[in-house]
Amino acid sequence: MAGRKPDIHVQPTGDGEWAARRRGQDRAVARASTQAEAIERGRRTARRDRTELSVHGRDGQVRAKWSYGNDPRDIPG
């Protein structure tokens, strides 16, 4: 899929902060002191780029996922 931007992942940084990063990139698109703030910033970016947002817990497991315009399903609803 040429031109599609990578998905956004919200993850802890290890220094007590949270970061929203594009998959496969080290540089964060946003950093925040709380997970909620990082989610909101990541959500804005994912909506703008029409991609997915995944939220990881401190244990690294995905706890939530949203798709903003790149859902290939043909199922209504």
Overall description:
The chain is α+β, with helices and mostly antiparallel strands. It has one domain (8-67). It contains 1 helix and 5 strands; from the N terminus they run βββαββ. It has one helix at residues 35-49; strands at 8-12, 18-22, 28-32, 52-56, 62-67. The chain has a 5-stranded mixed β-sheet, covered by helices on one side. Strand 1 (8-12) and strand 2 (18-22) form a beta hairpin. The longest helix has 15 residues, at 35-49. The chain is globular. The two termini are 24 Å apart. The model has no long low-confidence stretch (mean pLDDT 90).
Features:
single chain; 77 residues; alpha+beta; 1 helix
Task: Give a nutshell description of this structure.
By secondary structure, the chain is an alpha+beta fold. The protein is 19% helix and 34% strand. The longest helix is centred in the middle third of the chain and has 15 residues, at 35-49.
Q: How are the secondary structure elements laid out?
A:
Blueprint (H helix, E strand, L loop, with lengths): L7 E5 L5 E5 L5 E5 L2 H15 L2 E5 L5 E6 L10
